[in-house]
UniProtKB/TrEMBL annotation, chain A:
Domain UBC core: 4-164
Protein name from the UniProt record: Ubiquitin-conjugating enzyme E2 2
This protein's encoding gene: ubc7
Enzyme class, broadest EC rank: transferase
GO terms of molecular function: ATP binding; ubiquitin conjugating enzyme activity
Listed Pfam families: UQ_con (PF00179)
GO biological process, one term: ERAD pathway
Automatic annotation (TrEMBL), chain B:
NCBIfam families: rad18
Protein's UniProt name: Postreplication repair E3 ubiquitin-protein ligase RAD18
Record-linked Pfam families: zf-C3HC4_2
Protein's pathway: Protein modification; protein ubiquitination
Basic and acidic residues compositional bias, start-end: 367-376
Organism (species): Recurvomyces mirabilis
Listed Gene3D superfamilies: Zinc/RING finger domain, C3HC4 (zinc finger)
Any one GO MF annotation of this record: single-stranded DNA binding
GO cellular component, one term: Rad6-Rad18 complex
Any one Gene Ontology BP term: protein monoubiquitination
Catalytic reactions on record: S-ubiquitinyl-[E2 ubiquitin-conjugating enzyme]-L-cysteine + [acceptor protein]-L-lysine = [E2 ubiquitin-conjugating enzyme]-L-cysteine + N(6)-ubiquitinyl-[acceptor protein]-L-lysine
Length: 165, 529
């Protein structure tokens, strides 16, 4: 199958392999299907997530890059902007056009000039700096806002557990 | 553009090439002395497809994208992907200057990258990189390629400054007649006196004369490309292209039947729901209009081919989600379940392979394996009672036993050999428990020694009080060919748990386990012998 989408995904894959950004690895789960990727994101330093490595799955639509992929963490990630089931809620992953929630700048949303690399970098900075205006995980957001030490303790515990310590 | 045409024509070939890693990428430059070229190459890429601009178009907001890319993007979103200004496809204008820059860069790239790489290699192997560098740069080939690039780009720059018509000729619709594509650029350069057609500065003529012949070939290639481009552009101007462009339809005003008729008038497939037809029409309009923008328009046939590949990937013939997922192995793929399900097939194939191979080892091997037949039941019970882990091992035997009785029942030869082997097993039975225990102990030690490297299931199984299940699993692990010899030594205890009744049965289970289990066995065997 040779389409615009798979060509572009291959380009991005090659680019990410040869020149990966710090703390991020990503690539197709299987090279026969470029539309499902797995990414590993390191917890940013200086945050409770430090030391953790968070695997996530990226699924690309057939009309990529016109439409954004979806991203889902494959591990427990206690974070205001990550749904309890792991789906990431971040503006760069929201399709262009009308904003149903009316809280995002159009300029923050998906556009074909974005890339997997930019998504993953955005997610990494989202992990470091949660946006509690649009919480995906309300409990986590409330804990983050009202009981920060408890939040950080829980995150550290999760990270340790995920590492098998 | 010549290169993009190639891309499209050899779409399939390109894919294979891509997989093998031959596709040009800006990161190619990173490990060479010409690092900055990576950035240069990046800015020559369309931000939508991340490839070199193919017929770049300027938006109203002065951003450039491939014609096809920006047209698709605008029909999806109606905004510039870079700045999100509202824009329309009809307002796009060709960016000829950029197109020529890309074409020139692409022509110069292969040599440049090979030179850069060679220099990098030399720098690595040489103790005095500075000197080697000079040597490389002095070689004719390098000079030649850089010269070509330089003069070509100069020519280009000159023609753009002196003949601004070249740039905007296709945008102006009425006054094209004044344009002369063959006009000699008034750029202060002189032509090669030997008639190779190359233009250069006066002081460059002397060194050039020495290499004129070599350069002629190169220049011819470049010129033919260039003239092809120019010729096509002339043709484009003669045919009033803007009228050729397809207009976008107001789909909401069209009912299904007129829509279908419209598609058929255009010569594209008219089947499917209205929604699908709308998408197909949009795709076709984008393909068609992008082709109108191109300096080297393709035939309608080629465009239809493109539309067909769209149909297969995103349109009505696109694979559904369920179809897609069958092509790849899921991460949580149930390997054991699959092995169970296809056990018969696997064992048949492996047995066939073994038979063909017919190595001397196979005879003792089979006898040992088949001895297991009468001990199958205890082993099975042990499995089921003790370790739920091994449902594959636990569920295997009943089916295999049941089935194994039938395929060989009518085969006297097979039955005879089986009986023979059973007897052989009976003869050696008394040593089995001993060996078994010894084996278990060593295995246990091995696990203690290297717990971290053992997979969890191997660990639990070894510690499991139910002895039969242990060698059973071990057995599975060791049966790969590499461990044939190992099996020779300690095969009696394996035989105990061999629950399969025929030579064909033994194999599938052996293929299942992963490497670490082998390790236990290797360690256990080492002490054993």
């Amino acid at each position: 199958m040779n389409s615009v989408a798979s060509k572009r995904l291959f380009q991005e894959y090659e680019h990410l392999t040869t020149d990966p950004p710090d703390g991020i690895t990503a690539g197709p789960v299987n090279e026969d299907d470029l539309f499902v990727w797995e990414a590993m994101i390191q917890g940013p330093e200086g945050t409770p997530y430090e030391g953790g490595v968070f695997p996530a799955e990226l699924k690309f639509p057939k009309d990529y890059p016109l439409m954004p992929p979806t991203m889902k963490f494959q591990c427990d990630l206690w974070h205001p902007n990550v749904y309890p089931n792991g789906v990431v809620c971040i503006s760069i992953l929201h399709p262009p056009g009308d904003d149903p929630n009316h809280y995002e700048q159009a300029s923050e949303r998906w556009s074909p000039i974005q890339s997997v690399e930019k998504i993953l970098i955005s997610v990494m900075s989202m992990i470091a700096e949660p946006n509690d205006e649009s919480p995906a995980n309300v409990d986590a957001a409330r804990m983050w806002r009202e009981r920060r030490p408890e939040f950080e303790k829980r995150v550290r515990l999760d990270v340790r557990r995920s590492l098998g310590l | 553009m010549w290169h993009s045409l190639d891309d499209n024509d050899n779409a399939a070939a390109a894919t294979t090439m891509e997989i093998s890693g031959d596709i040009p990428d800006s990161t190619d430059w990173l490990n060479t002395p010409l690092k900055d070229f990576a950035q240069l190459e990046n800015v020559l890429h369309c931000q939508i497809c991340k490839e070199f601009y193919n017929c770049p178009m300027l938006t109203s907001c002065s951003h450039s994208f491939c014609s096809k890319c920006i047209r698709s993007s605008l029909s999806a979103d109606g905004r510039c992907p870079a700045c999100r200004t509202v824009d329309q496809a009809s307002k796009l204008r060709n960016n000829w200057a950029l197109e020529e820059v890309v074409a020139t860069f692409l022509a110069a790239r292969p040599k440049a990258i090979s030179v850069a790489r060679r220099e990098q290699e030399q720098a690595q192997y040489s103790s005095r990189p500075g000197k080697r560098k000079r040597v490389v740069l002095d070689s004719d080939e390098v000079e030649e390629s850089s010269r070509t690039t330089r003069s070509k780009s100069r020519k280009m720059a000159a023609s753009q400054t002196s003949n601004p018509d070249v740039v905007d000729v296709d945008d102006s619709e009425g006054d094209d007649g004044a344009y002369e594509p063959e006009a000699v650029p008034d750029d202060g350069l002189v032509e090669c006196p030997l008639g190779c057609g190359k233009r250069m500065k006066v002081e460059q003529v002397e060194p050039h004369l020495d290499r004129c012949d070599e350069e002629k070939e190169l220049a011819q290639k470049a010129n033919s490309r260039k003239s092809a481009t120019l010729a096509n552009r002339t043709i484009d101007r003669q045919s009033p292209r803007p009228q050729d462009r397809l207009a976008e339809l107001n789909y909401s005003l069209l009912r299904e039947q007129p829509m279908r008729k419209k598609l058929e008038e255009l010569g594209i497939p008219g089947w499917g729901s209205k929604q699908l037809m709308v998408r197909r029409h949009t795709e076709w309009v984008n393909l068609w209009n992008a082709n109108c923008d191109s300096t080297q328009p393709r035939t309608k046939r080629e465009l239809l081919h493109d539309l067909d590949s769209w149909e297969r990937t995103q349109g009505g013939k696109a694979p559904t989600a369920s179809n897609m997922s069958t092509n790849i192995m899921r991460k949580d793929f149930d390997g054991d379940g699959w092995a169970n399900k296809n056990k018969d097939e696997f064992s048949r194939l492996i047995a066939d392979a073994r038979r063909k191979k017919s190595n001397p080892e196979s005879t003792p091997d089979q006898s040992k394996v088949d001895t297991g037949d009468e001990f199958a039941k205890p082993a099975l019970d042990g499995d089921e009672n003790s370790s739920p882990h091994f449902d594959s091992a636990g569920t295997n035997p009943p089916t295999s036993q049941k089935q194994s009785s039938s395929p060989y029942a009518n085969n006297p030869d097979a039955m005879a050999s089986i009986r023979e082997k059973v007897e052989a097993a009976n003869a050696g039975r008394h040593i089995e428990p001993l060996m078994n225990q010894g084996f278990e102990n060593t295995a246990l030690n091995a696990t203690k020694d290297s717990t971290s490297s053992q997979p969890a299931h191997a660990h639990t199984s070894v510690l499991n009080p139910a002895t039969p299940s242990v060698p059973g699993t071990e057995n599975k692990a060791m049966m790969s060919d590499g461990f044939r010899q190992v099996r020779e030594v300690s095969n009696d205890e394996h035989a105990v748990n061999q629950r399969t009744g025929s030579p064909a049965r033994k194999v599938p289970m052996f293929e299942l386990p992963s490497e670490p289990v082998n390790d236990i066995d290797g360690a256990g065997d080492g002490t054993h012998v």
